[in-house]
Write a structure and sequence with these properties.
It is built from 18 helices and 13 strands. The longest helix has 17 residues.
Length: 400
């Protein structure tokens, strides 16, 4: 069987991060599957990969996969006309390049192509009903089904690749994998049990309250990732006169980034792939959702919190969670958001509450509330592996 995966990169790390993880996981589970990756931004791929990706090549073989430049229409069209794709994963409503539509919808096509529309991760309840729902195309020979990652057993679950699973379960091994790739001061901080390490990977926002809270922590060390949030964070530190060590991280391969998320004491994260890893890590976190029109990203944040709340049933945990909920919703808002948002997002905004630095520090310190985050992680692992579900779906079609 050969599976073709489509990835049009929108968020430099989230989209291609998921695709790279899925490809590695497929390779781990089934050596008999041949994989072709069609990627719109090979430079982004090269930044996170543990293998050498040549950004300027229209076609290359790496990691046991065929990797194609989405934009190389002539070369890709010629190859896939000769090797017609029968099993396609279209990631995150990315669409298809025109040259591939020319292959799939040509008049003399005879074989059936099965396509999965692999959606963005969401905790919204509609994901259960949407999973494996058929979707129309303009040809009976191209059959499309919606495939939902998610937080329940009625969805496909999350990708549980071997390396990340190892990092969650064995911090010592995770540290050994990661430490050689980090600046020395970051490695020392992570190895020192007396230092509270906070990873920050964010979109643009005002970090003043975060910087003031971490100043009050006393033993915080921030590991700051490149991206649109980096300058915002450094600016907030300067303006608030905050004083704590910060290490700006170099670009890290995905496996090292996974290990970092599992070894930090708290994670501020963004993006599709890092979002799923934060949920699985068992480490307390705040998620910065990708901003959407009409404030619908707030609905996604609220839905995640609704799922997580089930793991904070004990009285002291429930008290912590009320503050945690208000804080994460606040973290995903900004001034002026009330204009032009839908009614459901407006309801989420009413729940949001800007914390004082002291209140935010209590969330970051998560005093005694690690257990519910670990329980949430265990639950997600018990839901099964998205990769296995995807392969089983295609195998079933192949056997018919």
């Amino acid at each position: 069987m050969e599976i073709t995966v489509l990835c049009r990169v929108v968020d430099n790390y989230g989209d291609i991060g998921f695709v790279y993880r899925l490809a590695r996981s497929i390779r781990e589970i089934s050596r008999g599957i041949r994989l072709s990756l069609i990627v719109s931004d090979l430079e982004a791929f090269a930044r996170i990969a543990d293998i050498r990706i040549s950004a300027g090549k229209k076609y290359q073989r790496r990691g046991g996969w065929r990797i194609f430049d989405w934009n190389a229409a002539e070369e890709c069209g010629r190859y896939f006309m000769r090797h017609e794709p029968l099993y396609i994963v279209e990631c995150f409503q990315c669409g298809r390049p025109d040259w591939l539509d020319g292959v799939l919808f040509r008049k003399d096509k005879k074989s059936v192509t099965h396509m999965l529309n692999l959606e963005y991760l969401t905790a919204e309840t509609w994901a259960d009903e949407f999973h494996l729902l058929k979707s129309g195309t303009r040809s009976p020979l191209v059959r499309k089904v919606n495939f939902m990652p998610g937080f329940t057993r009625r969805t496909a679950g999350l990708v549980l690749d071997a390396h990340f699973t190892k990092c969650v379960r064995n911090r010592k091994l995770a540290m050994a994998d990661m430490a050689p790739l980090l600046p020395p001061d970051a490695s020392r901080a992570l190895y020192d049990p007396g230092i509270f390490c906070v990873t920050v990977f964010s979109y643009e926002r005002d970090f003043t309250c975060v910087a003031e809270a971490l100043s009050k922590k006393g033993n915080a060390h921030v590991l700051l990732a490149e991206g649109p949030g980096k300058d915002c964070f450094l600016s907030a530190m300067r303006e608030s006169k905050s004083a704590f060590p910060v290490t700006v991280l170099p670009p890290l391969p995905q496996t090292a980034w996974d290990a970092l998320l599992c070894c930090s004491d708290f994670n501020f994260i963004r993006g599709e792939d890092s979002f799923s890893r934060a949920c699985l890590s068992g480490i307390p976190f705040i998620w910065h959702a990708y901003r959407q029109s009409e404030g619908t990203h707030l609905i996604k944040v609220s839905a995640l919190l609704n799922v997580m709340e089930n793991f904070f049933a004990e009285k002291e945990d429930a008290e912590f969670f009320r503050l945690y909920r208000k804080t994460m919703l606040w973290y995903n808002t900004r001034d002026g958001d009330a204009d032009g948002i839908c009614a459901e997002a407006a309801e989420c905004m009413r729940e949001a509450e800007a914390p004082t630095p002291e209140a935010l520090l209590s969330v970051i310190s998560h005093g005694g509330c690690d257990g519910p985050f670990r329980d949430f992680s265990d639950y997600l692992f018990s839901n099964g592996n998205l990769t296995e579900s995807l392969i089983a779906y295609f195998r079933n079609l192949q056997d018919k």
